[in-house]
Amino acid sequence: MNKEEYFSNIKTYKYIANKSLGQNFLINPSISENIVSNLEINDEDNVLEIGCGLGSLSYFLMQKSNKITFIDVDERMTNYLLEHFKNCENKDVKRMNILKEDVSKYSKIIGNLPYYITSGIIEYLLLNATNAKKIVLMTQKEVYLKLIDPKEVSPLSILLRYVSNISNQTNVGRNNFTPIPHVDSCYFSLITNENIKNTSNNEVYKLMKTIFTHRRKNILNCLSRIINDKQECTKILESINVDINSRPENLSINDYFKLLDVMKTNNIVIK
Predict the structure, then answer these.
(1) Which pTM value belongs to this model?
(2) Which of 17, 114, 200, 256 could make an S-S bridge to 22, C-beta 3.0–4.6 Å?
């Protein structure tokens, strides 16, 4: 089936989209092809597609000779791919939650992420896709803008900048999907660096999330909720040259790593 026929067929499935799963199917083959091209797949790459849906990206991925795994939580979607691409070799279609997949084995990752769980998936990839060299994602445009906004500092945005470089976005209007969503989307790339392999990333991220729970308070008050001893907290912060009146977003990730080291040295558990 050529791409015009394939994407015309996708349009006829608009009424099966599951709103609770955030399903909106990309129906513009040129955009789909550009997104896949952006992943820059090499012969040796082990590739993962997240949320394959009706195969808007899968269609072009299936033309590669690489080992590629396609994951979707909806059995109807995985059955659709198995039916339409049953003769494709070296391809694995799985019905499962991406948050249960071992993503450390993939060197390239791509996905049109469902709106309701976008941040959770990005977080999971940044903490667990330790061998990924490049990640290309389609998300709600608002999500991307928050990730790059210096005024919207969060544990996720701090981690993202530590383990990767984020590209400029390419906007994708809502009319390129069926059913038509209420928001516009965009796709972008994450080029990872060696920091993604840091074995302390999960611990420092947990620490940042705990502290950011009270982000409007200063770092002394935030840390006191963990240690419950302001005098001890003051000593710890001074030992790593952090102003006790700083806000959580004012600290660099290196500050958080230093704080984590001191806490581990003193057997302080992050709950």
Answers:
(1) 0.94
(2) 114
